[in-house]
Amino acid sequence: MQKPEQTRLLLFMESNTSSLVELRNLTFGYGERVILDDVSLRIPRGKVTALMGASGGGKTTILRLIGGQNRAQSGEMLFDGQDVTRMDQRQLYAARRRMGMLFQFGALFADLSVYENVAFPLHEHTDLPEALVRDIVLMKLNAVGLRGARDLMPSDLSGGMARRIALARAIALDPELVMYDEPFSGLDPISLGTAANLIRHLNDSMGLTSVFVSHELEETFSISDHVIILANGKIAAQGTPEEVRKSADPLVYQYVHALPDGPVRFHYPGVSVEDDFGVGAASPSVSPGAAA
Q1: What is the DSSP string of 207-270?
Q2: What span, in angstroms and rounded, lies between the C-alpha atoms of 286 and 222?
Q3: pLDDT tens, 185-235?
Q4: How far apart (Å, rounded) are the C-alpha atoms in residues 64 and 85?
Q5: How far apart are CA 39 and CA 68, in angstroms?
Q6: pLDDT given for residue 279 in this prediction
Q7: Residue 186 and residue 149: Cα distance in Å, rounded?
Q8: Rg of the chain over CA atoms, in angstroms?
């Protein structure tokens, strides 16, 4: 019979090998506004995980917590078994070198060329000779189909191209984890499909762990292994795309079927229609001097 401490060790080892990122009873908010309330979740190693839910639900906040831009107020934010919340600057920078980030709309450096944008993290974090840097940059650009655009400036790029260049930059250091903040936002159908396929293909071919924030249901469900839906500071549903689609939770059902009314109401809370339009309803106040 196993002792309690042996059981805890086995559970820790299983968690550490199956999950690259784990939130344990994590709480975070801005001032008195709680964004994440005692949330626990895992990002499976080697898989594509989608964070979904209504705007303001804490999806991008989770990415910022993983990268250490925000620190949890309570609980743990584990990256490969290490608590990001307790890392000093040196430890945090070392952890970030194992992460790639694709910001919403790309966030390319406007005064650097495509080549220079992708080379930037290599120049910042390595002492590689320039010939090797060039080879790596061209390989990453080739992986996203834009090796021929190396000499263009960000102002010369379409939205979809800028997003792909930003992805090449995000994988320049061969990270273990790549985070995407709304990678499909504002893209036309062709660019959206290309971006989705790249996330799936690069995850599998490079052995990455990917986590992305999205509101595009069909594309997201088509490429994800694991879906987490956040609502009201909690996890409303999680599982495979098919499991989430079949959720009986009213809020999740409304979200995945894009219904205009449900737990998230169409009408902003107010007095009843009868009270507003009925006999004796109060007239709107008129400020002094407003009447002719």
Answers
A1: T-EEEEE---HHHHHHH-SEEEEEETTEEEEEESHHHHHT---HHHHHHHTT-SSSSS-SSPS-
A2: 54
A3: 888 888 888 889 889 998 998 899 999 998 888 889 999 999 999 988 889
A4: 11
A5: 17
A6: 60
A7: 21
A8: 23
